[in-house]
Amino acid sequence: MSRICPDPVLSIRNLRIGVGKHNAILHNVSFDILPGETYGLVGESGSGKSITGLSVMGLLKRPLQVTSGEVMFQGQDVLKLGNRARRRLRGDRMSMIFQEPMTALNPLVTVGRQIAEMLVVHRGMSWPQARRKAVEGLENVRVPSPEERARSYPHQLSGGMRQRVMIAIALACRPDLLIADEPTTALDVTVQAGVLELIAELCKAEGTAVLLVSHDLGVIANMCRRVGVMDRGRLVEEQDAKALFENPLHPYTRGLLAARPRLGSRTLAGRGRLTELDQVVASEDRGRDAPTLTTPREACPEVTA
Amino acid sequence: MLRFIFRRTLQMIPTLLAVVLIIFVIFSVIPGSFISSLMAEGRNAMNADVVAHLNSEFGLDKPLLVRLGDYLWGLAHFDLGISYRTREPVWNVIEPRLWPSIKLALTAMGFAVVVGVPLGFLAALKPGSLFDTGTMMMAVSGLSLPEFWLGLLLMYVFALQLGWLPSFGYHPGSIKHIVLPAIALGVSPMALLARTTRAGVLDVMNADFVRTARAKGLTEPRLVFAHVTRNVLVLVLTTLGLQFGSLMGQAIVIEALFSWPGIGSLLVDSVSTRDIPVVQGTVIVIVLWFLVINMLVDVAYAAIDPRIKVA
């Protein structure tokens, strides 16, 4: 893979995250993200998608901690960097969008200032200068009347608008990697598509790589070329998005795909959802003593081929 | 804003009416009157004619409802009545006591804020540390110490043993005289403020927007200053307002202990002599103080938090 492709922006190698030193909840996760690529990470809640994203940013909260592995960002292992160096990367070279736009913004600070802060901190701009840039940023994320909105407080904006503000904050310093953790999950279905399009478009224009974390296979299918499937702290399959949908290799992926609600067969889909995922559960014996799954590369040789 | 203040001022009237009613009922139920307290002081019985004369002079021979009506009528004209003891208008008795009390309350609260809030902040930034545990243990002790005992202890150590500060009394321009009573009065709000600040900081530090701020790559001081402090202030303000308001009431013991010529010691004196008009006037002043402080707190809320609007 790396023979033909450029060096990856982010390369995660055998990442393990544990509650404290021992109880591992993320097991030997490895994947690469190429420059400008949008990589999808899917899985049920609790499968370890979000903490993978947070560990890249260095935002894991105690008692969660990385116990082993490498997170190579632009050729350097960020896990070996000191707090200062890591902080400088955050927001500047890599940034993150969170799930809850309602609570992710400071309620007491105008959104313009929250965007401008990025430029003051990382670009050393003066506040008035940064504020003008913030208005431009709002314009880029297609917030109507950006001048006025920059003076608004978060509670005066709708959920979709707030998420656009989050995107403006995340992209203010034109990062090389954007981690979007369920960016549309908390949004109204009608505004989801708009926000996703915006992320795709802005990142394409800037050549920003995206790690898109979602439980929504539809979102992943639309946005990503390559997809990693996570289950209980393991990356169980990695495929091209198209291939994944047409020919899922791992039984868990098949269960996950089968669990999608389908249009037009409401009752059937509802029933199918439960029984099919249950079958996976039963066949895999998802209990504590379940035999450990093989790593994706071993399980699915086609992926790396 | 002005409309808000006006409306809140109107809302104080029913509260005041309730307070006046309660005091009236209590003083008509408890045994003893101004006259009986005079007799006890003189250690001898008074002439029945004199008693009847005094009773009619103060209107004590009238039925309770009539007296209440008379008092409310006066109150509507900003007239608090005449003190039984000094025969002066009640306001003239209270007025010179007002400033010393406010001064003591402000100093005590200033001490509580300046010491308590930073302590809580620092404790919360390193939860579980020795500093945190120590501060919180002190806070619990501060809350549990009876004020009069703390006052006596301070007097003993700093006035009697060390001789650094006067043990009691009041001089208008003197800073020395206010130190001990202010600390004795301020320790419990200080402890409470430290605790609420700590809880508030820990709460805000876990908020999603603080995670966002970290993801933005802010330095820790900047993060605390720009994103935590103001949000904590909203939480601390509630405690601060309530404490500040009730300080006048709490000052009763401390003022009596340190012979501080304030509202509190006036209240104690007036209750023991059954000088009911002064008691009523003093309680009304304390209640008004509480209500005004709370109104100011609400105005401050609106100034800090854009989500809260006063209209």
Automatic annotation (TrEMBL), chain A:
A biological-process GO annotation: transmembrane transport
Location of region: Disordered: 283-305
GO CC annotation terms, alphabetical: plasma membrane
Top-level lineage group: Bacteria
Subcellular location: Cell inner membrane
Keyword Zinc-finger appears in the UniProt entry: no
UniProt keyword terms in alphabetical order: ATP-binding, Cell membrane, Membrane, Nucleotide-binding, Transport
Membrane topology: Peripheral membrane protein
Pfam families: ABC_tran, oligo_HPY
Residue ranges of every copy of the ABC transporter domain listed in the record: 10-257
Molecular-function GO term, any one: ATP hydrolysis activity
Sequence similarity: Belongs to the ABC transporter superfamily.
Protein name as annotated: Peptide ABC transporter ATP-binding protein
Organism of this sequence: Manganibacter manganicus
Automatic annotation (TrEMBL), chain B:
Entry's Gene Ontology BP terms: transmembrane transport
CDD domains: TM_PBP2 (cd06261)
Membrane-topology annotation of the record: Multi-pass membrane protein
Domain of life: Bacteria
Compartments, as annotated in UniProt: Cell membrane
Keyword check for Translocase: no
Chain ranges of the ABC transmembrane type-1 domain: 98-297
Chief site of localization: membrane
Keywords: Cell membrane, Membrane, Transmembrane, Transmembrane helix, Transport
Residue ranges of the TM segments: 12-35, 104-125, 137-158, 178-195, 232-258, 278-304
Any one cellular-component term (Gene Ontology): plasma membrane
Purpose: Part of the ABC transporter complex GsiABCD involved in glutathione import. Probably responsible for the translocation of the substrate across the membrane.
Similarity comment text for this entry: Belongs to the binding-protein-dependent transport system permease family.
Protein name as catalogued: Glutathione transport system permease protein GsiC
Native source organism of the sequence: Manganibacter manganicus
